[in-house]
Amino acid sequence: MDFSHPDVRPAAVAGAFYPGQAAALADDIDRYLMQAGQALQGEELPPKAIIVPHAGYIYSGPVAAAAYARIAPLREQIRRVVLIGPAHRLWVAGLAVPAVQAFATPLGEVPLDRAAIDRLTELPFVEVSDAAHAAEHSLEVQLPFLQRLLTDFALVPVLAGGADGAQVATVLERLWGGPETLVVISSDLSHYHSYARAQQLDAATCAAIEALQAGRLTPEDACGCRGVDGLLLAAQRHDLRPRTVDLRNSGDTAGPRDQVVGYGAWVFATGDRPSTEDLDEAERQSLLTIAGGAVRAAAHGAPAPDVALTTCTAALRSPGAAFVTVQVDGALRGCLGSLLAHRPLARDVAAHAYAAASEDPRFTPVAPHELAGVALEVAVLGAPEPMRFRDEADLIAQLRPGRDGLILEAGSRRGTFLPKVWEHLPEPATFLAQLKRKVGLTPDYWSDDVRVARYATQSFAAPLAALPARG
Questions:
Q1: φ and ψ at 172, to 5 degrees?
Q2: pTM of the model
Q3: Cα–Cα–Cα angle for 233, 237, 238, rounded to 5 degrees
């Protein structure tokens, strides 16, 4: 590293985490942003804050771009970026800001907002340390994305060491500002687990972020958990709504699957946006038609059909989570779905309908000659609501038969029962006991590590024969 100019922090990981040449770096970022931008539909509210990963670009660049692409419309509006990430290289007791005037990358220098930084140093848990920032990558890897996207901005770089979420939230409150200020939280997720285990851990982290559960995450869940916690607390105060825009790991992008690192991207926006929680009759019929087309394709061995989002309503284009149940002559032949909203609802329904008809490991795939007897049910999930309880008896007393879908987590185990399961298990104690069995626990198991969330569903069904042969 070259420290020949004392007022500028030079790039420390150029040529390692990302290309060291300006042209190659710009090309890589533009490609990531273009690919991510293809999924945008123009209906989204601009984010006030984002959470993005900070690994080498070949691993996490496409995931980070999913969030960064959504700030492109704000390129002339954003004038300040508050960037918070974990201190990997040099431990700090609380939070650390630099004394320099600018940070450099191969794309040029980013000026620091010294007035804002000086305001932070008035806080007793904020120290000034160029040494903490000198070799740190968690903030640096975000800068080229911001340089390519924004016209003119100043940076407030903050490293979190031993700080807690409340202290980070205090920093954010001091610099919250208006639409001219963007908050960026830098964090990877789980580290060096098997692919399947990482998916479980990162899905739980994602659920905590979507539910604004500040204090729920540990450094093992997300290395930037202090920054994430602070943003979740600020989001509660400012009525920001988080939305997952990507959730993958290095096994999905550029690495092997024996030991992976998890990455996620979230955007936080205020105000109303298209909701999947109150679908009208036409939207329900559209989803059933989409599911029907996917089941027909699966039965005939055709590729999963592509859902044209341009023909969908705003609610069906919005991220949503659904389960699709396939019956043949009244008997269950498949039921698959997702608990987390990570893609447009219409595409989530199509994917799970196709998989339920052809990939549910409990059943043989639906055959063409069985299509006449197929009936479909789509259950669109509402946002999970974490439950608070003193013990198992208290949890059972809070359950609402016929209404609650339930997600149960214990250690690495996780499973769900949809509300329709109450039709077969109407007693709350039995419902909970059988859900424990489903996730691989004994019915009498109980521990302080048990976590439960409940959700509501919108469910609607139709015979396949009654649905148009399209979608």
A1: -60, -40
A2: 0.62
A3: 115
